[in-house]
Amino acid sequence: MSDLRVNTISASDGTSPVALTKQSAAKAWINYEQAATFVTRDSLNISSVNDDGDGLADTNYASSFANANYAAAGSASKQAVAATTAYWTFPVRSTPVYTTNSTSWTSGYSIGTSSSLQALDCYLNIVNIHGDLA
Description:
Layout: E1 28-33, E2 39-44, E3 46-53, E4 56-61, E5 71-77, E6 86-91, E7 102-110, E8 117-119, E9 124-130
């Protein structure tokens, strides 16, 4: 049996990271704050994010996906640092962008026990996108 032990794997230029193309790892993800000021805490394969209003954002990808059939999932919590209510982030909205280059997201909370949903900027949004890159 072989054993491969390394500290760093880089591209052939010796400095760039290795591109993930067919592996089952997330091909894009972002951790961002949308409340008060829009802040990206950390991300992978995100070229920019559009703040489209209360609870609305678009993630734009540095490397496009092979098709628009990728899996996108999100989660959110806290409208503010001290909040205790759990919130949500879903891919797409009433006029969705779900393309090889971008995904629309809606964040918010449910109002009481009714089925009404309220869009809202959240303190913590985390989204993951899995699929094949172009």
